[in-house]
Design brief:
Elements: E1 8-11, H1 22-29, H2 33-44, H3 50-61, H4 65-77, H5 83-92, E2 96-104, H6 107-115, E3 122-125, E4 127-129, E5 135-138, H7 149-161, E6 164-168, H8 171-174, E7 182-186, H9 193-198, E8 201-203, H10 212-215
Bound molecules: magnesium ion.
Length: 227
């Protein structure tokens, strides 16, 4: 407890806790890479909302339950270096660890379980399947399916999170900057100049352990040797 200046650290998943984008993996798995990149391109050209681009991408990929399980296994195989150690150190210092993502269960839960993050600290969007476990839709009403969703969720959980650090690579993470006590931009997987420009702290090293000194005071590097 001695080093604690924050109560919670909230992690994004894709390109933060893991070294790839889950939707890219699913598109590849389903042979829909071209469709996905077309949608991404037209979304970048302007007027499509995050929700609309998500809608189009998910309809193109149509991932079944088993595909989401495969994504979960892929998450576990491609954890960002230092993630496991970072989570252990934070927990040892009495800091709660959380996951906040627009991605889906069961994949995110599989990752959380592997990393030792409690299931009650895992916040995701919802995906729906039919009785044969085929893709139906995702929860369009969930704030995480649209811009500004992460700030809404952090405010909803504020009482439980307390003084909060958020770490993420993307614009949906950055949008929640004002809702947390410290935002750390993570460019260790994908370097994003826009996020770097807007983040007081921006990490470019490919190892998540580099966030520790910003979170724990008097952090001794030899503490790492315990792990
Ligand atoms: Mg991300």
């Amino acid at each position: 407890m001695k080093n604690r200046k924050y109560d919670s650290v909230v992690f994004d998943v894709d390109s933060t806790l893991v070294t790839f984008e889950g939707l890219d993996f699913l598109a590849k798995l389903k042979g829909k890479e071209k469709e996905l990149s077309k949608i991404t391109k037209s979304a970048m050209n302007g007027d499509m909302s995050m929700r609309e681009s998500m809608e189009r991408k998910m309809r193109a990929i149509s991932p079944d339950f088993e595909d989401i399980v495969k994504m979960g296994n892929e998450y576990i195989k491609n954890i960002t270096p230092g993630a496991l150690e970072t989570i252990k150190i934070l927990k040892t210092n009495g800091i709660q660890t959380w996951i906040l993502t627009g991605n889906f269960q069961p994949a995110v839960g599989m990752l959380a379980n592997f990393l030792g993050i409690k299931s009650t600290n895992v916040i995701t969007n919802n995906i729906f399947f039919d009785e044969n476990k085929k893709y139906l839709s995702f929860d369009r009403e969930n704030p995480l399916s649209n811009n500004g969703g992460k700030a809404i969720k952090i405010n909803e959980f504020k009482n439980k999170m307390g003084k909060t650090v958020l770490i993420g690579d993307g614009s949906t993470d950055l949008e929640a900057k004002e809702s947390v006590n410290l935002f750390i931009g993570f460019g260790g997987v994908i370097f994003r100049p826009k996020i770097k420009a807007a983040s007081k702290i921006y990490i470019t090293e490919p190892n998540l352990m580099t966030i520790i000194p910003y979170i724990l005071d008097n952090y001794q590097s030899e503490d790492i040797s315990l792990y």
